Queue: 2 jobs
Job 1
Amino acid sequence: MNLSLEGKTYVIMGVANKRSIAWGISQSLSKAGATLIFTYAGERMEKNVRQLADSLDQEETMVLPCDITDDNEIEKTFQDIKDKVGHIDGLAHCIAFANKEELDGDYLNTTRDGFMLAHSISSYSLTAVAKVIRELDLMKEGGSIVTMTYLGGERIVKNYNVMGVAKASLDASVQYLANDLGKDSIRVNAISAGPIRTLSAKGIGGFNDVLQEMEEKAPLNRLVTQEEVGDTALFLMSDLARGITGETIHVDAGYNKVG
Ligand code: KAL
């Protein structure tokens, strides 16, 4: 048993740019010898993702669109993947969205549409993808599904608001999916990363304060990096984590244990 992912294939959903956590995961998996397939949301992202994918040491890069709000498109994307590679060994789901105006002030002001949108993109999308993976028998040799969560789903974090409620739903989904897919030797886990400067965090009120508090209070007294999250994903994808499912691993310099 080792960390090598030589001969294995993984789908990475949610790379936006080189600061993305999904990109940190991609680099860790690629260094371990994995073949990677990327999906992106919307044409705006395509060029970035292709450029990044091409920069990896891969024989051939597969980059596909996947609008996570559209079940037909999810099915088509994963059917394309199946046609091309036959089966996959794992999937990294690094997708979240909420309307910016609902990530500030009172959670009480969340609209029905904003609530549904945040839950559809940030939580249901994992279930939708897992469902298609099973329908297509895409992880027929077993596999590992990893999603990204955040402390704001476990407790109150200022301004996280509807995203916190969506992450709580995602965390619960991880457990139920782990239960459903365990019989097929598919493990489902979440990584709860500390705050990292990514495109999705950009321009969100109070983010700098969160970073500062983390540096002051976390047991390791520092922030965490995309690479550290990537290496934890690598562990979860590897056989070393074969006994772990339905779990959330905090990669946050210990911050969640304080206070
Ligand atoms: C307490 C924290 C401070 C920030 C509060 C809320 C963060 C929410 C994350 C959520 C995913 C951000 C958005 O959906 C932003 C979106 O409205 C506008 N941005 C975009 O559309 C960009 C271009 C694209 C790439 O972004 C997305 N998401 O598609 C939470 C911090 C400390 C930790 C974080 C950032 C957690 C997290 O969930 O990302």
Note: The CA atoms of residues 182 and 245 lie 8 Å apart.
Job 2
Amino acid sequence: PDVVNKIAAGEIIVAPVHALKELIENAVDAGSTSLEILVKDGGLKLLQITDNGSGIQKEDLAILCERHTTSKISSFDDLASIGTYGFRGEALASISHIAHLTVTTKTKDSSLAWRAYYIDGKLAPPKPGQSAEPKGVAGRPGTQITVEDLFYSIPTRRRAFRSTADEFNKIIEMVGRYAIHCDGVGFTCKKAGESSNSLSIQAQATVNDRIRQIYGSAVANELISFDVSDSRWGFRADGFASNANYNIKKTTFLLFINHRSVESSVIKKALEQTYASFLPKGGHPFIYLNLAIDPARVDVNVHPTKREVHFLNEDEVIQEICKHIETKLAAVDT
Ligand code: ADP
Ligand code: MG
């Protein structure tokens, strides 16, 4: 069964960025306003994320990394309407099967922080001969998750990573996506051993500031905002997109569905088509699209290895969004 768990975990988490994405979502779900991320060797040696959110109760630590342990579903009805496709209490469990996982956490009414170490879903001693029980330590309110030696238990996977620089680039790109999306939350991301941050966004920065700092002024100066909804199809879409004065060789498409960063090649293609009549041949847009869809309409049974999300009346929703953006583009002076 342990081999099965490792294989399953390795399918959910294919690269370090997939583990980090889950950890960012957990920190944001816990109400954090500050996320500090530390990365070593493209996340293969170390991924550490420190937040200032709710923290985890000491009593919950023993089962934290068992599969299906989640504080986010309390009834069967919740399960039907939950907006977190694929992963339901599986992220930390998966990580504990393929990495060394340490959790240090403090709730605001606990006098101590508690540190626990996990292997294969269970509390484990940090060193042979030590106790597996959570240990009281000094610390600030919030949670620090430390993931070390990712894929140590799947050596063929571990060896398949050629370039830690590529993995770091994927990480920085993902942190940037969440930094743009999570209004009111500050983010830093740093490579271990370097003195300055690779990315740093203040909690009070506006969305435009965030886009400017991450993608540059050329695009931030040429943005239109949009906001469109339709109760027939149970959606609302808002965000920012470049106008006809900006174009780049490859589309930048930041898509969030119900606050999770996901991919949709169908939506991307439709938007590129909308832009084609406004941009010179070969020119592509920047689009940050925040899509809220009635959770009952989202396909939650998508296998977790699939990063693409589908929902009911996809064609109608896409058409409404494209039509709205087209009107906005047509109204911009070029
Ligand atoms: P899920 O997010 O689907 O509930 P996870 O495996 O990602 O499953 O996390 C399991 C549980 O651990 C969460 O439901 C939450 O209660 C707790 N948790 C994880 N990370 C944090 C965090 N940074 N702050 C507070 N609680 C957390
Ligand atoms: Mg989670």
Note: The CA atoms of residues 70 and 89 lie 5 Å apart.
